[in-house]
Write a structure and sequence with these properties.
The chain is mainly beta. The chain has one domain: Pnp Oxidase, Chain A, CATH 2.30.110. About 10% of the residues lie in helices and about 50% in strands. The protein contains one helix and seven strands; from the N terminus they run ββββαβββ. A seven-stranded antiparallel β-sheet has the order 2-1-5-6-7-4-3. Strand 6 and strand 7 form a beta hairpin. The longest helix is centred in the middle third of the chain and has 12 residues. The protein starts with 9 loop residues before the first strand and ends with a strand.
Length: about 140
């Protein structure tokens, strides 16, 4: 697998259409994706002292996080509106290889910060709801 540039990891938000058109959440400097998997333990007396897990059981989720510089884009305004309303929206992550991950996410945290005579920055955290599709 070839190394990929971090700048080619883009977080995008849908426009609410069907199918959605996606806009890059402008100003992101760092992005992070975490795939979580809850397990179902089926260890028993016959496991020989080793933990056993049930394949395909439990639940999976995806967490997205990013930090960047606020620039007042329409995509950022949509993210802020979603955070204030507590509504799900369609988000997409695009990797340098062209692979995408798309699904419904809830903004679970949106922080703004700024220093005098400096740019206003923000951090964002999102949690998936339902399936996340890769393409």
């Amino acid at each position: 697998m070839a190394a990929e540039l971090g700048s080619a990891f883009l977080l995008k938000i849908g426009d609410g259409g069907s199918p959605p058109a996606f806009a890059t959440i402008a100003g992101l400097r760092t992005t992070q994706l975490t795939i979580n998997s809850d397990t179902v333990v089926v260890t028993n007396k016959g496991s020989g002292g080793w933990r056993e897990l049930l394949s395909g059981a439990g639940f999976r989720s995806v967490s997205l996080a990013g930090a960047g510089v606020f620039n007042g884009s329409a995509a950022e305004a949509r993210v802020k509106a979603n955070a204030l309303a507590g509504v799900l929206d369609t988000y997409q992550v695009v990797f340098a290889s062209g692979e995408t991950m798309t699904g419904q996410f809830l903004v679970t945290r949106l922080d703004y910060a700024g220093d005098f005579n400096n740019e206003r920055s923000y951090t964002i955290a999102l949690e998936s709801s339902g399936s996340v599709v890769t393409a």
